[in-house]
Write a structure and sequence with these properties.
- With 295 residues, the protein is α+β, with helices and mostly antiparallel strands.
- It is built from 9 helices and 7 strands, in the order αααααβββαααββββα.
- α1 runs antiparallel to α2 and α3 packs across α4.
- The longest helix is centred in the first third of the chain and has 29 residues.
- The termini are far apart.
- About 7% of the residues have low confidence.
Length: 295
């Protein structure tokens, strides 16, 4: 029996598969690249694959090498990994998801078209099975990651903390972050980092305007606040930014809700205008020195 191959259908099916492989990988990497780059890298990978099928005689070992090479080029073009570690992570994710989607597609096709499974051609393979397999794979991966994250999070230390300022209070969920060693440069007191959105109720209006306008690095804006003993500038270093300044504010009192409640006065809280956690599980980073001194 002669196998008929429809290039347009073959291109469409492979483009859909590659696009969703890269789409799922990108979601797992927290939207590292734009959808345009996903489309471009998917089109590039599919085009190379089709040209390979048309112009290079089939050889099982050669096919594995060529497909791996196509994925490598597509990853370099689409995701632009900065290190070998980043590339390895993306390459493994691509192959794992490709395996899951490919296996899922065959399984769905097998159980719904059993009588024709052994005579499969591009004509009777339906795209809907591929789409269902892709969606199912994505859902399964998200469920697994969610479960894994919950198990991992349970091993970390979280505390509810209540901040009091000017007779107003807010309660935050704080991660005890061993990497947070920030200190207020004058008093050398340990600093808590918290999200601006969570702190808004206790912040003065003029300070909130600076964060609304994303002018935290504008020293002139800070000077416009006038002499305010509650405002502190806290230098920090982070990955991708050698030096920076965080605006801090002095809190009248903080309660750390442990088995034995810890109460501290005149604590400095640095304000972050970015989310500290992608899934909003916590909105503050607790300096371990504030806990260790009571243990």
């Amino acid at each position: 029996m002669q196998l008929e191959i429809y290039v347009d259908i073959l291109f469409l099916i492979n483009f859909i598969m590659v696009y969703f492989i890269f789409f799922i990988v990108n979601k797992l990497l927290k939207d590292k690249i734009s959808l345009k780059r996903i489309l471009f890298s998917s089109f590039f990978a599919t085009l190379l694959y089709i040209l390979t099928i048309i112009f290079i005689p089939y050889n099982k070992l050669l096919s594995i090498v060529i497909i791996s090479f196509i994925f490598i080029l597509s990853i370099l073009i689409g995701f632009k990994p900065k290190t070998i570690k980043d590339f390895t992570k993306i390459f493994l994710l691509v192959n794992i998801i490709a395996f899951c989607i490919g296996g899922g597609s065959i399984a769905i096709f097998y159980y719904t078209n059993f009588n024709y499974f052994l005579t499969i051609t591009m004509e009777n393979f339906q795209v809907k099975f591929l789409v269902i397999a892709i969606i199912s794979t994505y859902i399964i991966i998200k469920i697994f990651l969610s479960w894994y994250k919950k198990i991992f999070i349970q091993k970390q230390s979280f505390y509810n903390i209540t901040l009091h300022k000017n007779n107003i209070n807010v309660t935050l969920n704080a991660l005890l972050d061993t990497g947070n060693n920030l200190k207020e440069p004058i008093t050398k007191k340990p600093v808590i980092i918290a999200e601006f959105i969570a702190l808004k109720p206790i912040l003065p209006e003029k300070l909130k305007e600076i964060f609304y306008e994303k002018q935290e690095d504008n020293l002139n804006k800070l000077l416009e606040l006038g002499h305010n003993a509650d405002i502190r500038l806290i230098p920090f270093k982070s990955v991708g930014k050698k030096n920076g300044l965080l605006i801090g504010t002095k809190i009248d009192m903080i309660e750390i809700h442990t088995e034995n409640k810890i109460i501290l006065k005149d604590v400095i809280v640095a304000i972050s205008n970015f989310n500290l956690c992608n899934d909003n599980f916590y909105n503050a980073l607790l300096n371990p020195e504030l806990i260790n001194c009571f243990n």
